[in-house]
Design brief:
The protein is of the alpha/beta class. The chain is built from 12 helices and 10 strands. This is CRAL-TRIO domain-containing protein.
């Protein structure tokens, strides 16, 4: 029996996160999107260099190629349409070869999860799921399965994103003499994040970082995309009102609070933040035999609901993640046109 107030399971996806629906595209943005969309919906389309008979897109791949996914790659390539198509096809091939749909299952990566070195819990002020990493809880030797586990958790984080949420909040706690991964492992993870999960990192909060770790980050910073570097927040500040990017950001936020617009200075409300290492009000304790099946169950159920709604919306390339997630949330499905857009 857990002590009163202790929680061992993930928090539910926010029902109504404070995030607006996708904005209307400009004429130029719509033209870029239409070009990429047309490439993948061509009836003759096959994935380049695919094995014999494996060229057509699988259902999971058509669902992955959502309206928002296409736009993420267009933004990541700075609106270069041919490069966007090349990058999307590169990720489609990588997802097959890496085993996203086959090898990388909950059963495969579970040995990496036993100590709670990575877990999903809570949502930041923008509704982004918090993915916690605790290097001090490392329980295995470096190898492919460690990378598989990181990718599996990234995929589960996307499952737990509510309507209008496309990014996650990465929470890294270097307390308790945490061991850092090797440069080669760090570079491999960074390459996967930047190449195959573009525009997915909303913020990276790094707490209790010792001076030796600053040196490590200086070594890997040249390999990190400059945009990603701007999302890194070292030693965020906590007070009775929440977790903030910095003391300066908090003080400026107080000066502009009368506008009613979120400034981004506050990253987490305390009731969405774990107490250990982060001083939140949630007394979360990782108990693998409770947390792991609960996480797997909620993600599988949510994924099944999203697939069901996506099929009801037509099951084609270009359906909006917004429409799918709102359909799951509200229990109803909007009518869509031939391009997968809600009417």
């Amino acid at each position: 029996m857990a002590p009163s107030g202790v929680i061992h399971v993930p928090l539910p996806v926010p029902t109504h996160p404070n995030v607006p629906p996708p904005r209307e595209l400009t004429e130029q943005e719509q033209a870029e999107y239409d070009s990429v969309f047309a490439h993948f919906v061509n009836p003759e389309y096959v994935l380049p260099d695919a094995a014999l008979g494996k060229g057509p897109l699988m259902e999971e791949e058509r669902m992955w190629l959502s309206y928002e996914c296409i736009l993420r790659y267009i933004r990541a390539t700075k609106h270069d349409v041919p490069e966007s198509i090349k990058r999307l096809e590169g990720t489609l091939k990588w997802r097959r070869e890496f085993g996203i749909y086959t090898t990388i299952t909950a059963e495969h990566v579970e040995p990496e999860a036993l100590t709670g070195k990575e877990f999903l819990f809570g949502y930041d002020t923008r509704g982004r799921p918090g993915l916690y990493m605790c290097p001090s809880r490392q329980n295995t030797e470096e190898g492919p399965r460690q990378i598989h586990f990181v990718v599996w958790m990234l995929e589960r984080a996307t499952d737990l994103m509510g309507p209008g949420v496309e990014t996650l909040a990465l929470m890294i706690d270097y307390a308790d003499k945490a061991k850092n991964p090797s440069i080669s492992t760090a570079r491999q993870v960074l390459n996967i994040l930047q190449t195959h999960y573009p525009e997915r990192l909303g913020a990276a909060l790094i707490a209790h970082i010792p001076w030796l770790m600053h040196a490590f980050y200086k070594l890997i910073t040249p390999f990190i995309d400059p945009v990603t570097v701007t999302k890194m927040i070292f030693n965020p500040v906590k007070d009775d009102n929440g977790l903030w990017r910095s003391t300066e950001a908090r003080d400026k936020d107080e000066d502009t609070s009368k506008t009613g617009e979120p400034s981004g200075a506050k990253v987490f409300e305390l009731d969405q933040l774990v107490s250990e290492g982060w001083s939140g009000s949630q007394t979360f304790v990782y108990a693998h035999n409770v947390y792991w099946p609960a996480l797997v169950e909620v993600c599988e159920a949510r994924r099944a609901d999203m697939i069901r709604v996506w099929r009801q919306l037509g099951g084609v390339v270009g359906i909006k993640e917004w429409d799918v997630k709102v359909g799951v949330r509200d229990g109803k499905v909007s009518e869509v046109n031939a391009t997968g857009q809600a009417l």
